[in-house]
Each structure stands twice: as C-alpha cells, then as structure tokens.
Amino acid sequence: MVFLGIESLVEAIKTTEKAPVVYQGMGVLMLGFFIAILMLSAFSRKGTTDSQTKGESYKKLMLAYSVALGIGIHNLGEGLAIGGAYAVGEISLGALLVLGFMIHNVTEGVAIVAPIAKIGPRFKQLVLMGLLAGAPTILGTWIGGFTYSAIWSVFFLAIGAGAIFQVIFSIIQYMAKPNWGSLFSFINVWGFLLGLAVMYVTGFFVTV
Do the beta carbons of residue 4 and residue 109 sit within 8 Å? Predict the structure, then answer.
C-alpha cells in the first residue's frame, strides 16, 4: 500500500507537466489528494462508531473494503494511462500496460484480504471487493480511450494517492492498538520490506 501511494503521487506530479499551465496542475493534485483523505476519514469515523456495536469482525470487514476502495481509485488512474495509450494509437504500449498492471496488481489482492483472512469472508464479499478494486481500471480505460485529459489524470491519481494514504493510516491505527511499539516487531518490519521489494520487482513489468 505504501509503495502504491508513493507511486500514485509521483505519477500525478509527473503528469502535471503534461497538463495546460492554466489549469494549475499542482493545485488540482492537492485538491484531489485532500478530498480523498478528508472524505474517507469521515466515512472511516462513522465505520468506527458502527463497529463498536457490530463487533470486531465488522471492523475488519470495513477495513478490507476501505483497502479495496483505495486500490480501486488508484487503478482508475492506471486505466486512464491504458486508455490514453490507445487514444494516441500506441496499441502495443497499451497491451504492455495491460499485461504489466495485471502482474503488478496481483500483489494488491493480498492487501485487500489480509484484514479478513482469519474471519473467513463469504465468496460474495470477495467478489464485491474484487469488483471495487478492479472495475475502476475498466472505467478508466474507457474514459482515457475516448476523452483522455492530462488534468483529469492528475486529479484521479491524486485522489488514489490520498485514498491509499488514508487507508494506510487506518491500518497502522488498527495494528498499533494497544501498543505502538508492536508495529516494529521483527515480523512486521521484514514483512513490510518484503512487500516493498515485491511491488518494486513487479513494477518492472509496467512500462509507461
């Protein structure tokens, strides 16, 4: 998730250079970033209140859906890149992006199911999470293919980055209770570093 958040933010910053100056790309980036963080924080607060009455399993399920949503918004930006490649006639580049993002995104599924791995999620819930995370890629490809706009790419990538960082904060809060020092256990540290390494390696398959 950390890798995806940084990746989205860097890509958004790079894309601001392609947008017309009059639209103030960095301003659009900041707007999208904070819209995602503040809106998801508000929903997360409501979910925390509900979980106090509905139990720990409900809290874990909502966390998994939040991860899927954050990744889904991120994937909307990836879809825009694919559609944009097709829009300018770069068919081979578009095909490579599809293949690369597919390989890269396989690892994202682990982040979605991790919070609910021990509670035995229903098949219907897994399907809904998969759609929430994956369907935006298709939507983004359609948008990018027919009406590609650099400024909209900046906006959606920024929203994706903001959403992912908000979800990361929620996960850290959940893992840190009741002791923040537990975040730095041997397993957590090496798991985090291994996750970064896996995302870095699969990133080689994405050629933009």
Answer: no
